[in-house]
Amino acid sequence: MKGSLATLVVVAILAAPTPAVPLEPVGAMVDAFRTHAVVAVTAGHGETRGYAFGQLLIHDPRLIAAINDIVIEEGSARYQDVADRFVRGDNVPLESLRHVWRDTTQPGLGYDRQWEEFFQVMRAVNAALPATHKVRVMLGDPPIEWENVKTPEDHRRWIEMRDTGHKKTVQGVDCNVFEVLENDIKKQEVCYAIAGELPIADDDRKGLARGLKVMARYGQAFTGMAEHIGATPAQAQKPGGLPVAQTCFDPSGQSIGQNALSISQEKVAPDRFDIPSDYSKMTMQDNPANH
Fold it and tell me: Tell me: the pLDDT tens digits for 112-124?
């Protein structure tokens, strides 16, 4: 009987509810960072109290001193470079910045006034911080390219692609790792290096950025490794960076193909750009690769 009674008493103690105790919100957040690397705050889309609480947090120097980054859901990763330049004080027009929250996978959820205030505050906060402790605003929504979305299926593919938050080094270049899902099953893992992270000159970066747009169109028109093993080239171009490595998986999660890009910088002879003497015009439909 004593053993049973002891068991009942222990169960009763463990089941007793703990009374809720109001806490000072910013102090509670700072305390949470003492034991956790990531602390999340949630609010409904367009919910004014959530935005107001966010403003309270970023205005408080206690929180700013405790963090390195702020991740926002209502921000398209396609415009990460725009957000980075704005919050560090560069000359970025507001019209360019508005793409961050206007052009997400869920358009219409971002409100200009609240997000403009948020980014203006973060810009002012960073201006007062030492160079070693600037706070970065990370954009958490997939980098959708609305100009290439023509059907509901196009949109769904963007929804199913998520940045894993992981990084890899490929050919000496730091890359962001993205996964492409289909029916909640990982189909591809692609490592992307944005032009600004490549070890090349500024003028070359600008040329590369233009070249990436051409590559995206080229990838949609021609077949390649990804298509042969069940993934489309269009999917592999989504984040707008340079895909430097790709792994494809079968439904069981086993790797069924890999490729990696070799990166080097060297001078190219001008005659490499000459038009061949036997050149003839050909349309995409005429190309043998499409038959």
Answer: 788 999 999 999 9
Q: What is the pLDDT of residues 211-261, one digit of tens each?
A: 666 655 555 444 444 444 344 443 434 455 677 788 888 877 777 777 777
H-run or E-run covering 51 = helix 48-59
Work out the number of other CB atoms within 10 angstroms of the CB of residue 94. 11
Coil vs helix vs strand at 157:
helix
| Residue 47, CA distances (Å) to 50, 54, 110, 140 in order | 6, 11, 11, 19
Give Cα separations from 205 to 127, 191, 216, 224, 274 (angstroms).
Answer: 27, 18, 16, 25, 22
Residue with tokens 């560069």: 90
Q: DSSP secondary-structure letter at 217?
A: H
Residues 6+ apart with CB under 8 A from 35: none
Q: Using CA atoms, how far apart are residues 127 and 121, in angstroms rounded to an integer?
A: 10
**What pLDDT is attached to residue 6?**
39
pTM of the model: 0.56
| Rg of the Cα atoms in the chain | 25
Residue 226 amino acid letter? A
What whole-number distance in Å separates Cα of residue 41 and Cα of residue 118?
Answer: 15
Out of 30-39, 155-164, 223-232, the most confident range is 30-39
Average pLDDT of span 130-139:
90
Handedness of CA 119, 85, 243, 281 (dihedral sign): positive
Beta bridge mates, 76: 141
Phi, psi of 218 (to 5 degrees): -60, -45
Place of tokens 């080097």: 264
Residue type, 11: V
Instruction: Quote the tokens at residue 30.
Output: 């700072």
Give the DSSP letter string of 229-288.
TT--TTGGGTTSSEEEEEEEE-TTS-EEEEEE---------GGGGSPPTT-----TTT-G
